[in-house]
Amino acid sequence: MKKYIRFVLLSVVVVSGIVFSSCSRKKVDLSSLDYGALKEQALQEILQPVHPGVKGEVPFWNKFAFRYIYAPVFDLDEVEGAGSYVFTATAGDVTKSFTADTPTAALSPIWNDIPYGPVRLEVQAVDKEKQPVGEPAVREFTKCQPFAGPYEEPKTGYMEAALKAAEWIHTYIGSLWLEGTDPDLSYLYNAYPCKIWSGIIQNECFLAKNKPESRDSALKIAHNVADALIENSLPEEEPLAYFPPTYYTKKIDEEGLLAGTVHDNSRYTMFVEAVSAADALLDLYDNTGERKYFDHACHIAETYRSRQAEDGSWPMKVDYYTGEPFIDAPCMSADILILASRLKDQYKVKGFERMIEKGEAWLWDNTIVTFNFNGQFEDVPVKGLQPYLNLTNCTARYCIEYLLSKPRPSKKDIAASLEMARFTEDQFTYWTERLEHERVQEAIIGVEEMVPFVYEQYQWRYPVDASNAGVAMAWMQIYQATGDLLALAKAKALVDAIVRTQIPSGYINTALLKYPLDDLDDDYPWVNCTYHSITALVRFAEIVE
Q: Are both 15 and 97 inside the same structural domain?
């Protein structure tokens, strides 16, 4: 298997024409981007399949995939008596064919000749006399358009947009915490401590650092929310020591909010979610130097270390009070490794080296190589989830963040990250408007998405600002590691869409729509998602502004 992995990763680099480089951190003149050349480059790159499976060696990840930008490879069985296989793709009035020695050949020979839209593929085994053997295998999918920049330019600078978004959260959501540590559930998602409270802390820390006139009120809010996180965390003697809960349930009954999701899951926690709390507390420590926040973050990381299995894995969903796994499946653990690496590299905390080593080995063998980027969202059922059934861009982009945030990523790290970035594009990125037949969920019927957009997961095909931000961050890291201007252009297009959907007050709707709502009574933004957008905007500003 390892020989094959090296071949695939290196082939991506050759096809993309990328030179590994560390010189791409200088400022870039975006007006100099040659979009004609970049679109030609994109058309060549989509001929290279994304991490193709190999029978008996590398799993095929696309069993449940329904759309592709890059030429796909399908898990089809060889037919006894077959000498070759005829691939015939029909899209509208166009039919294209080629012959291959194996039924697992990529569609590369005809991919750029197939129109965009619904495609029916038939793979017919034939004998040496070219006579059919058995019935053809059939696959149906949608071919989606590749990168087609330039897109509409935003009217606001990236850092300016980030600050406006942070100020909006500060004014309308952060202010609910000015008077104490009791969460105000007039903002619905204050029922999610790990996600939302952590996002508020990080937002206020960002504002305190970048807007001096708001520093005092921002840090007061951050202190109150951080203290609430600590107050609601489990004590030292519990199995999940120092973990805040996924859900804040003290007021749910009397308020009648989020009844389905919260009541059904109130005893459980997604094991990885305490990472966001630790990161937020570290951000507050960076701003204030107050040791109790640093210590609590370290204690969370120590609990992760103590709960790591010998094979390097952690459970996905557990009983919050006993620590017992709710299901057998392991969690996608890149987030935990990012936290441990932050403590090791930024703060020089010792004792996490072995945890990181074991965790990374597991991550390579069970996620990066297998491409099993299943979603693990607390509001989506995970029990009985088949491998590859609910793939998401989020798992892949956190793997990229972990690998490329190392002080010195290896060529293997960079190449694997490029392959995962291509996956987030292939399966989740729409560079043009979604076709009518793809509007499969009631929630997306009749809405106008801000193109380009990235949807979150197979089970929620909705444009989410955090998904745009996450995939943009992945392409930024690819650019900074390789100097590839197409990666930079893709990142720009995705962050530009976030800025263009922002309304004058600074509000960024979680749903990346052309006409977002500007009234908290009508729509509730997920602060953690908005903070992802802020982070992406700031990082892009650092590259180009």
A: no
Q: Sign of the CA dihedral 275, 277, 282, 286?
A: positive
pLDDT band for position 398 (cuts 50, 70, 90): very high
pLDDT surpassing 60 at residue 319: yes
| % the chain with pLDDT above 70 | 89
**Helix axes of 158-172 and 215-231: crossing angle, nearest 10 degrees:** 60
- What is the per-residue pLDDT for 4? 36
Average pLDDT value for residue range 237-250: 92
> Do 126 and 11 lie in a common domain?
no
The tally of domains found in the chain comes to 3
**In 10 A of CB 266, how many CB atoms?**
17
Q: Is residue 187 part of a domain?
A: no
In angstroms, the CA 11 to CA 26 distance is 27
Residues 65 and 91 in one domain: no
The answer to whether 189 touches 200, Cβ cutoff 8 Å, is: no
Task: Return the pLDDT at 242.
Answer: 98
pLDDT for residue 327: 82
Q: Residues 337, 481: one domain?
A: no
| pLDDT in the model for residue 441 | 73
- If asked whether residues 278 and 342 sit together in one domain, one would say yes
Encoding tokens for residue 141?
């999918």
**Same domain, yes or no, for 97 and 197?**
no
Tell whether 208 and 114 lie within a shared domain: no
Which of 245-254, 283-292, 378-387, 448-457: highest mean pLDDT? 283-292
| Statement to judge: residues 218 and 160 lie in one domain | no
Domain region containing 168:
1-69+156-172+391-545
Q: What dihedral angle (degrees, nearest 10) is formed by the CA atoms of 85, 90, 95, 99?
A: -10
Residue 307 sits in a domain whose CATH number is 1.50.10.10
- Cα–Cα distance measured from residue 278 to residue 542, given in angstroms and rounded to the nearest whole number: 25
pLDDT at position 12, please?
41
Distance CA 46, CA 71 (A): 6
Is the residue at 208 inside a domain? yes
Predicted confidence at residue 18, as pLDDT, reads 39
The number of beta carbons lying within 10 Å of the beta carbon of residue 437 is 9
Biggest CA-to-CA distance, the chain: 82
- 3-state DSSP helix/strand/coil % of the chain, to nearest 5: 45, 10, 40
For residue 180, being part of any structural domain is answered with no
